[in-house]
Amino acid sequence: MISVFELFKVGVGPSSSHTVGPMIAAYRFAQEVTEQPEIARCCTRIRIELFGSLALTGLGHATDTAIFCGLAGCLPDRTEPHILQQTVESLRANQCIELAGKKSIPFDEKRDLIWLRNETLPAHPNAIQFSVLDTHNHVLFSKRYYSTGGGFVYDEKELASLRESLSKTSNDTPQAEPFPFTTAAELIQMARESNCRIDQIIDGNEQVHRSPDAIAEQLDRLWAVMAACIDRGCMSPGILPGSLHIRRRAPGIYQKLTGGTSLIPSQWLEQHAQEKLKDPLQQLDWVSLFALAVNEENAAGGQVVTAPTNGAAGVIPAVLGYYVYLVPDPGHPDFDRTISDREGVHRFLKTAGAIGMLYKRNASLSAAEMGCQGEVGVACSMAAAGLAACMGGTIDQIENAAEIGMEHNLGLTCDPIAGLVQVPCIERNTMGATKAINAARLAVLYGDGKHFVSLDRVIETMRQTGVDMQSKYKETSLGGLAVNVVDC
Ligand code: SF4
């Protein structure tokens, strides 16, 4: 079973598949090389080959700098963005990689970082091959990794065994967890039979690997990183990096919504509980603001929670922000107020995580395979389920919310202009977040859980749509907005 903490993890912008994944792959390769003394002693050169979508949009997604940081021993969840920046600056200034922080290897970026834009490997569109060579240019050790979306990374063996295991049902293989599920139907059946909510099912599975306190602490940290990202995004005016020179919008909208303040949003919202209710539709503006703030931070290379990807990192914090900051507390009739905000955040993340696991297992979180329906679409579906759970929705209503969240994102293409995770990505997260709230309300407040399309059917439809989608709409920047709005 995938853990909820594999789906939600602290990472850096701008992309989970093109930044976080390559950094992890590079880190793993550097560790492997330095753990083999003979190879580590003899290697004098390192070569990096990028294939398919990584080669086509990697420059705009900071794949190159992410790889440099990973090779130097940095991991996205353990390294502050300013340290990453210093690591890249030092590597470029000295033309030398400190492999895993242990061995210096001269590095000629023009020669040894190879962008194979016309080559896509059959196993997955996001592939990287690392090789270390000796003084005679003989390859001493080489390894290929695939970044399959959401920061998940597999080497060739791991990918093959993952695919083999995916072809089996949970009944075919013994599982460590008490509630193994592969489909929404199984999840629902298990929840019914054990008289548990979806978040309790996830709790039961997570407790095999960590204590209840550790689970709670990790969930607290995820929300803390999301909330800090909203705060930073609202307080950081300026221009985003890259050729588009896009102005950050969140700080201006924040000032307009508050009438001007020097407080950070979490403080302002705490102190102005009444004002925020004056115009009900202004709640939507706040939700959009939260999403913009997170995705502008992501585009600027800041720290975000991959949820379930970086391009879609704003949807879940925006909907959680709506729940924590904007829903009157206590006693709001539309919400389960028998629980504290903290418990609500935990319930939200675990329920959303359960839905994300279904997409990861039965389709993909990779825009290079599924287009944007696999990023913003999945985040919307997860957020809708999480919010429905906090509204006290039944299992059927939660499934319905998740299904609505995806049904109206089917076919969403990925066509980022100039290969940057900016346009349409940043604004698209506002749409994903507001759609998720709408989906949860339709399912819980105005539905009884009965619905025509099941979540499993919509996930399979997303998968088929992704397979049929032309590759120019799958994170290659060769179609759609990327070619009709020219960056010049
Ligand atoms: S268009 Fe969607 S999938 Fe593509 S990079 Fe932007 S957010 Fe990610």
Number of helices: 22
Largest sheet: 5 strands, mixed
Helix content: 40-55%
Strand content: 5-15%
Number of strands: 9
Shape: globular
Model regions low in confidence, pLDDT < 50 over at least 5 residues: none
Tally of distinct domains:
2
Can you give the mean pLDDT? 94
Q: Terminal Cα separation, in Å?
A: 46 Å
Write out the strand line-up for the largest beta sheet, numbering strands in chain order.
5-2-6-7-8
Catalogue the ligands. Answer: iron/sulfur cluster
User: Which structural class fits the helix and strand makeup?
Assistant: alpha+beta
What keywords describe this structure?
single chain, 488 residues, alpha+beta, 60s Ribosomal Protein L30, Chain: A, 2 domains, 5-stranded mixed β-sheet, two-stranded antiparallel ribbon, 52% helix, 10% strand, binds iron/sulfur cluster
